[in-house]
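Hello,

Our lab assistant flagged a job as stuck in the queue for most of the afternoon. It eventually completed. Since we weren't sure the result was trustworthy after the delay, we are filing this so someone can double-check. Below is the sequence as submitted and the structure that was eventually returned. Let us know if re-running is recommended.
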Amino acid sequence: MFKIGDFSKLSCVSVKTLRYYDELGLLKPAHVDHFTGYRYYSADQLPRLNRILALKDLGFSLEQTIRLLEGTLAPGQMREFLLMKQAELHRRVQDEQARLVRVEARLRLIEQEDTMPKYDVVLKRIEAKTVVSARKVAPTFGEVHLFEREVHSALEQYGITPIAASLNIYHHMGFLDRDMEIEVAAPVDAAPSIDIPLPSGERITSQVLPAVQVMACLTQPVTEDTITEAYNAMGMWIQSNGYRIVGPSREICQPLDLGDKTGAFLIEIQFPVELENRLETAKAVLAPHDLTRLTERSRQALQFARDETRAFRHPAIGIAHLLVGLVRESNSFAAHDLRDLGVTLDQARAAVTALVAPDAVQPQELTLDEGSRRIFVLAAEEAKQRSHNYIGTEHILLALTSDTDAITTALWQHVGVAQARVQAQVEQMLRAQETGA
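-- returned structure --
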């Protein structure tokens, strides 16, 4: 899943708009952390968002859009509605042409949902490079382009020749259609410190962009109207391949054939990413779809369980380690429940010591033991039974309370809480969460 800021960038829809759609019930987050209020979205929600934006651009009111989407229209029916509106747009005056192009781009996204993607994403190591750059907050996209020209003109005036195509670095969180924090950077040979004033008040300075170990890169000819497709494709690839975004995105744009009248240009979209290593131990247990449904707090609890196993010098991640991981992820649903029931971190660790013996030789790669594998399968089933499209710490805790294995029973006896009592507490909090009480 993606944090709302990352999902905003990948969908090219502002964080403010996503929150508004959540309030209206148009696009609810895949998961909301009950204790922090953080919203998390899935790449699986991009098709619905594309439909919302297509209907909006076609002139449907948000109220009409809600009614259309609640009808669960088949793709053929949806396409029929869109084509009717498209014909109406064609009859409008020339001022409506720009809107029509945006609608057609969204239509392409919808029609391509069940086809093989035409975008290829590759992983690269980006070496550290010396650049001269300037940074500002641009009020509009038009100001971004003006700022690019201003930087390049100043470099030419001062006789500084870039050794490669310049890049735009977007430092703001999420997609913005105004007040974008952009840095225009031009790679140069190693040079002494540079400080060039710009007419707009910003300054060009030299710096070294640090190396990026893993950069997800997508290179594709696009126009201003099809660039969103490329970002959508990047988001789908990142999620489906088990990566997460870990830094500001970059764009490298270069012109194509000057005879091309479409306005197309070659773009390389770059996102620094890292593998969701916290999921490695669960890959053998959960289906890929279920892996992506694990919430941020579930993933961190699993990482804590792995850390505890290594600290105890145990051969595999067991049920008792999972409980310690849930307690350590202190802001999670499960941790709040366990604290209310009087379960402390020291108690959970004492149960580990009592139930699991250290091993003389610890394997380099820790895996889930049979009991923990069973717990994750049960957790996925708990989420499914409740029609939850995420697997949270509450589902893992419920799995620990419903498991009847002797080790699990002994675990709860050691921490001094009956399984039925824990289960009742979780169910009560879930009901309160669903009713807003």
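-- support follow-up --
The delay was a queue issue, not a problem with the job. The result is valid. The chain has 17 helices and 13 strands. The mean pLDDT is 84.
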